[in-house]
Design goal:
Number of strands: 0
Order of helices and strands: HHHHHH
Helix content: over 70%
Strand content: under 5%
Number of helices: 6
Radius of gyration: 14 Å
Shape: globular
């Protein structure tokens, strides 16, 4: 199956799990040993608002290749009217775009690029 034919929301579905796994490992490695504390810290990274902020920062810095920008554009432009009550539609689309990109690279087994993206986010 050609990854470019996969619905961007399906890529985001996959990317969400990868993204959250990176964040959880990062926080545990920081020494946070309490589940409540882990959850509070994780929100700083996994909320749609945070994901949209990180994507915007990377876009502003020219972090992405043309191939990646294509995935991001596809996800941002995907026609949807539903979004979580906790954020507006634009924020949701940016967060979905970041998750879609991570799902895209996961599908292609490009862990090196996922590592680079997550390193930017988790610094």
């Amino acid at each position: 199956m050609n990854v470019k034919e996969i619905n961007v929301l399906v890529l985001a579905y996959l990317g969400d799990t990868i993204y959250e796994n990176y964040v959880r490992k990062y926080l545990i490695l920081k020494g946070i040993g309490n589940v409540d504390s882990l959850q509070k810290e994780a929100i700083k990274y996994v909320s749609a608002k945070s994901q949209a902020k990180y994507l915007t920062e990377m876009l502003d810095k020219g972090f992405f290749s043309d191939e990646e920008l294509d995935v991001i554009r596809r996800a941002r432009n995907y026609k949807t009217t539903s979004h979580p009550k906790s954020c507006d539609i634009i924020t949701y689309k940016y967060a979905t775009a970041l998750e879609s990109l991570i799902g895209y690279w996961e599908f292609l087994n490009n862990r090196e690029r996922i590592d680079e993206i997550m390193h930017f986010i988790l610094k």
